[in-house]
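tool=predict chain=A
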Amino acid sequence: MNITKTASAHWEGSIKEGKGTISTQSGALRNQPYSFKKRFGDEAGTNPEELIGAAHAGCFTMAFSGELFKAGITAKAIDSEAQVTLVKDGEGFKVSKSHLIVTIDAGGADQAKVKAAAESAKANCPISKLLNAEVSMDFRISESKAA
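tool=predict ok
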């Protein structure tokens, strides 16, 4: 099975003074503004690294749920954050790392199985495989308290 999803970008002006928009096929992003100041400065708005982080966190979390299912575990909740690091690389920049911070509520599940499922998801989710960068993770198991 091959699935192709699309996103597009439009840019006008110079690198530092110009601005652009990002859109996705689904319409989740429609002409979302982005600029040099949003990416490298403190101007509010999105940027490519933030979008990669959202994609990585979402992909990992779904893959983790699938790995848990294979192990016979259903999590009450999984929360994931991806911290994407952009560094200077010669004359340009590169994404050097995506660090996952994960919390799972799996109510009494075998912790070794949960950790193994997380490691498999980290290594095998399609966005982890796509990134030509170190992919790391902090992992924490929490359990909700019965009321």
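The chain has a mean pLDDT of 91. The beta strands are 7-12, 19-24, 32-35, 77-89, 92-105, 134-142.
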